[in-house]
Every structure is written in structure tokens, then in C-alpha cells.
Design brief:
The chain has two helices and eight strands, in the order E-E-E-E-E-H-E-H-E-E. It has one domain. It has 141 residues and is mainly beta. Bound molecules: zinc ion (ZN). Zinc ion binds at residues 38, 40-41, 43, 71, 73-74, 76.
Length: 141
Amino acid sequence: MLYCNHVDQRSRRGSKFAHPRRYTCVLNPFLDYRASKCPSCLRQTFERKFALFIHIEGTGPIILGKTCKYCARCEMIFVNQPDVAAELGLVTGRPVEELDWMVLGTVDKRYWKARLGQGPATADTPAILVPFKDTRRVACG
Ligand SMILES: [Zn+2]
């Protein structure tokens, strides 16, 4: 039985954003759980590419293009933590186990595409961040 815990990110977030909140982020720490069904509405999820806005302690914010399982009905994005951690290790050149990171929201894909080919996309300002409405974590119970 899988359920989702709420994750309180409020202390990590500022209070003012340029964009209204959108999407619920569901962090998935399990390599073998692929979120083929939405735990909320039980419908089948599908894959969609998102430009994720991720804050890394000691590095700052980066934008990572990532294909995630997605439930359009619930607007839930399932973020596989081991996958993302491995990619952040490559991007930062730092050992994965030393990385302290948090997905704060998404970025308009047009912005992200405009930055491709310029090395790791660094988000210089939170003005582009579309913060998540809610963040949950997949848990076994
Ligand atoms: Zn759903």
C-alpha cells in the first residue's frame, strides 16, 4: 500500500512569486516504484517532460529537463529522486550523497529551451519559478 506524505517546504521558500502556484510534486524515493497509476485518482499516468526548478545547497538553483510520470487530472508530477539525484551529480560534478536538493517548482519550457547549449542552465532569478501547490512523498505503509 502506497500513500503520500505531505512535505513542508515553507521554510525553504520565499513568500512572493511572480507566477501562481501550479502542480503537485510527488517525490518518489523508490527505484522500483514507477508510478504507472496515480495514487490519488487511480488512473494511468503518462510521461511528460518538465523543466524542473531545483535548488541545490551550495550550488544554487538549476533547471533540469526531466521526463516524469504525470497525472493530468490531478496535475501531479512524480519525481523519481534517485534518477534526479544522479543527474544532479553529473551537472554539478559533486558526489550524489553530498547533494542536498529540493524541487521547488517548474519553469516554462520555452525559457529552458532558450538556455540549452549554454551549459547547465542556471536560474538567476526566482522570477521564472512556477512554484508547486503542494509537495508529497511516496511512502510504504
Ligand atoms: Zn490522478
